[in-house]
Each structure stands twice: as structure tokens, then as C-alpha cells.
Amino acid sequence: MYKAKIFVNYKPSVLDPQAQAIHKALVRLGDDNVATVMMGKYFELTLTATDVDAATAQVDRICDRLLANVSMETYHFTVTPVGEATV
Amino acid sequence: MYKAKIFVNYKPSVLDPQAQAIHKALVRLGDDNVATVMMGKYFELTLTATDVDAATAQVDRICDRLLANVSMETYHFTVTPVGEATV
């Protein structure tokens, strides 16, 4: 069994109104020392696979087809055997 | 300058229809070896602060007040000086 930790974010060139709204709210709340706000989606999948390469290839395909809108978003992920600690 | 990496997820007891919909879509696409799907929000903030403890306390307050709905969601985060590599 493998665990995939997937991060999906807007490309830098894409305007993120939600992150901007959060930044404005922070300033209104007095947290004006916050310089930048970036917001994204985070997924954790567990899947069976023959080996880590097979799991990695499958997760990449899943991100490309379903989890990320590749015209506007980028993604990166880690795949580890379940039981091995990462962050 | 400090960078906070924040993860906000539903509490285990809370039903996540979006994650369920993704799981069903994966099965339809033939990825039926995916056992579990968890989805959450991911934020990166950069902020100035006197020291890492002050930055940590502020980020905790920001999560509690703005980024997480603490009745349904949990959050965890890391705070590191900008320039020090983490995952």
C-alpha cells in the first residue's frame, strides 16, 4: 500500500481571487505583516500498486486527468510506502 | 521573514462529499485500486515577525480565526525562516 500526498496550486500567472480575499481579510484583522498568501488544494490518496514506480505513474495520471486543471494549475506530489514517515 | 505551510482538513467524523465524488470518479476511470481519498486546503503565508515563536502564535491565531472552520475542520502547520528548506 502506498500513500500519495498531492499539492495542486494555481500557476503563478493565474490570478487567485480567493487568496487575495484572504489577504485583504488578514489586513482588516490587523495581520498586515503577512506579505503573501497562496492557497491550493491538498489530497492524500492511499492505493495498492506493484511498486513505487507504478504508484507514481498512476498518481501522475490521476493528477493530470482529474485532480488538477493543467491549463491553470500545477501539481507536485510524493509517494511513499505506507508506514514510512514523511512530513 | 517566515514561511508558514498550513494544512486544513475535515475532521474524520465529518462527511466529505467532494472526496467521495473524487473516489467514485477514480473508480469509474478504472483506478479502483485507490483505497482512500482525502481532500483538504493548503495555504502558504509569508510574514515578518520578531522570532519564530511570535510567527507561530500569529499563524495559529490566523488559522483559528480565518482559515479553518474549527467546528468541522482541523489544521496543522509548520513555520520556518525563509530560506531554510523543508518538504
Automatic annotation (TrEMBL), chains A, B:
Protein's GO biological process: 'de novo' IMP biosynthetic process
InterPro entries: PurS, PurS-like_sf
GO cellular component, one term: cytoplasm
Record pathway: Purine metabolism; IMP biosynthesis via de novo pathway; 5-amino-1-(5-phospho-D-ribosyl)imidazole from N(2)-formyl-N(1)-(5-phospho-D-ribosyl)glycinamide: step 1/2
Keywords: ATP-binding, Cytoplasm, Ligase, Nucleotide-binding, Purine biosynthesis
Domain of life from the UniProt record: Bacteria
EC number: 6.3.5.3
PANTHER family for this protein: PHOSPHORIBOSYLFORMYLGLYCINAMIDINE SYNTHASE SUBUNIT PURS
Family: Belongs to the PurS family.
Function (record text): Part of the phosphoribosylformylglycinamidine synthase complex involved in the purines biosynthetic pathway. Catalyzes the ATP-dependent conversion of formylglycinamide ribonucleotide (FGAR) and glutamine to yield formylglycinamidine ribonucleotide (FGAM) and glutamate. The FGAM synthase complex is composed of three subunits. PurQ produces an ammonia molecule by converting glutamine to glutamate. PurL transfers the ammonia molecule to FGAR to form FGAM in an ATP-dependent manner.
Protein's name in the database: Phosphoribosylformylglycinamidine synthase subunit PurS
Organism whose genome encodes this protein: Lacticaseibacillus thailandensis DSM 22698 = JCM 13996
This protein's encoding gene: purS
